[in-house]
Amino acid sequence: MRKFLIATHGTMAAGIQNALQIITGDTQRLAVINAFVGVENPSDLIQAYFQNQDEQDEIIILTDLPGGSVNQLLIHYLKRPHTHLVSGINLSLVLALVLDPQQTDTAAMIREAIDASREQILYINEKVKQINADLSTIF
Fold first, then answer.
1. What is the pTM of this model?
2. CATH no. for residue 115?
C-alpha cells in the first residue's frame, strides 16, 4: 500500500492534512509530523512512525524545506525499501500524489507531480494583466 508522511516545521503538515480532508474527504493513508511544536523530539516521532509501518508499504515522505532540519532527519530513512523523499511541498503537489490511482511507477509519478505543481505557482498580478491585454485585442 502507498502511504504518505508529511513532516514540516510547525503546523504546516497539519494544515495540509486539513486541506486534504476538505478537498478529498479521505486522509487515511496520510500521517503528519508537526516538528518543533511541542516538547516531543521530532526524531522520536519519526522513529515511532516508521516502527509502525509494514516493510512492504511504499512511503512517500513530503517535507517543507530541502535543507531544513526535518528533511535532514528523514534522509536517513531512504535506506528503507520503497521509500521516497520529496521536499518543497505545496498543496497542489500533495493532491497530485495522493489522488494518483497507485497504478503508475512511483518515481515517474513523483516527477510528473512536481512538474505540474510548479506550474501552479503563479504571480497573479501578471496573469491578470496578461488576460486583460489579451481581451483588449479581441474587443
1. 0.90
2. 3.40.50.510
